[in-house]
Amino acid sequence: MIDAGHGGHDPGAISKDRKLYEKNVVLDLALMLGDKIKKAYPDVKVIYTRDKDIFIPLYERADIANKNHADLFISIHCNSVNNTKPSGFETYVMGMDHNAANMEVCKRENSVILLEDDYTARYQGFDPNDSESYIMFNLMQNAHFEQSLIFAELCQNSMKGGPVVKNRGIKQGALVVLWRSTMPSVLVEVGFISNPQDMAALASKDKRQQIAGELFNAFEKFKEQYELSGDVEEENIPETAPEEPAQPVAEPAEPESPLPSSAEQDTFFAVQVFAISKSLKPDDPVFKGAEDVRKFNAGKVFKYTVGTFKTEEEAAAAALKLSSDFPGCFVVKLDNSGIKKK
């Protein structure tokens, strides 16, 4: 799923000379990226939230991806601030970071909902300009948090040395379009329209082709990892600080409480509902009363599972019931050393 940000009566960021509109730049990049994927992988179905200059509400962007059972969601944007000095590319995953600069990016990208009819009801009273509203996002990273981080790192690594020079790193942000999607999802800010050097790169058709090629390289590497392992490798979970190498995550995740032992069976199944950076107690409200909640320490991430089942079929049935409360939850295999890949 390729999402070109903004569109129609929502121009997004606009250059100082008013000649370059974010909505046009990102649409061009989205179509270029999709074309590269289609040519290289004819078996991959590429879907766009928009393929022309029209306005698409944020909730519809995620819903299109969810209804089509997308495996990956890539939202493409351009950055802008009042100061002309900030420059560079950065990739966001869904999360809560109280950094003031990151919050301003989130407020700007989320403010699109103010252009939608009846947005207060549709977004459960969320106000993109009210900092207190962002508290609701604090624990909403779901089971795809790890995969999103991995793809974000691939995007950042691929864009190094490209036409937009500065690497601003991977960041977490309370972004509505990522919150509502139920698959690995990232939002890539490919450069600052407000910076003269970045703007020159974004205005160039050839440079846009180069940026689209960099995003394609990230997609290609992610696809290879995903297909080789049946899932992306957890060892590659990166740091969120800019321009720092990824730190390895312990594999498997170490359990903080022992699993039930059995003379006949030492392997069990469970349903993973979250992978987040915060340590929670089993009775935390975020688990919505679920029983048999377990926490596994995986480096900088805590994984949380619900239930302990003897068979994968039992776990799958439980996952189906839990999916209404925990979209994107999935079955994992457990033993006393932690979570194993199925």
Describe the structure.
This protein is 31% helix and 19% strand. It is α/β, with parallel strands linked by helices and 342 residues long. It has 2 domains: 2-236, 3-Layer(aba) Sandwich (Aminopeptidase), CATH 3.40.630; 254-340, Sporulation related repeat (Alpha-Beta Plaits), CATH 3.30.70.1070. The strands form 2 sheets. A 6-stranded antiparallel β-sheet has the order 6-8-9-7-10-11. Strands 1-2-5-3-4 form a 5-stranded mixed β-sheet, with helices on both faces. A hairpin with a 2-residue loop joins strand 8 and strand 9. Helix 5 (145-159) crosses helix 8 (205-229). The chain starts with a strand and ends with a strand. The model is unreliable at 132-141 and 229-251 (pLDDT under 50).
Largest sheet: 6 strands, antiparallel
Poorly predicted runs of 5 or more residues: 132-141, 229-251
| Helix-and-strand structural type | alpha/beta
Mean pLDDT: 80
Percent range of helical residues = 25-40%
Strand content: 15-25%
CATH architecture of the largest domain: 3-Layer(aba) Sandwich
Our Rg estimate from Cα atoms comes to: 20 Å
Query: How far is it from the N-terminal to the C-terminal residue, by CA?
Result: 26 Å
CATH names the topology of the largest domain as Aminopeptidase
Strand adjacency order, main sheet: 6-8-9-7-10-11
User: Quick one: overall form?
Assistant: elongated
- Topology as a string of helices (H) and strands (E): EHHEEHHHEHEHHEEEEHEE
What is the number of helical segments per DSSP (H or I, 4+ residues)? 9
**CATH class descriptor name of the largest domain:** Alpha Beta
Q: Please tell me the total number of domains.
A: 2
